[in-house]
Specification:
67 residues, two-stranded antiparallel sheet, alpha+beta, 12% helix
Amino acid sequence: MKVKLLFWERNGFVVWYKRLERERFKWPTHLTDETVTLTGQELNWLLDGYNLKAMQPHKALNFQCVG
């Protein structure tokens, strides 16, 4: 699953993209509106793979470079 963010930061737009190798982002389903407002900390938790309702993170993945 992937997330794309577009936001305004003082003098220009910022595009942020993250794709998870495994699992899925746990979008806050307990909210009823189409628009979700998150604090900076909640956004960081979401992008780090936390389920905001249960506050449980994804398992860390460790990859080795082959070259």
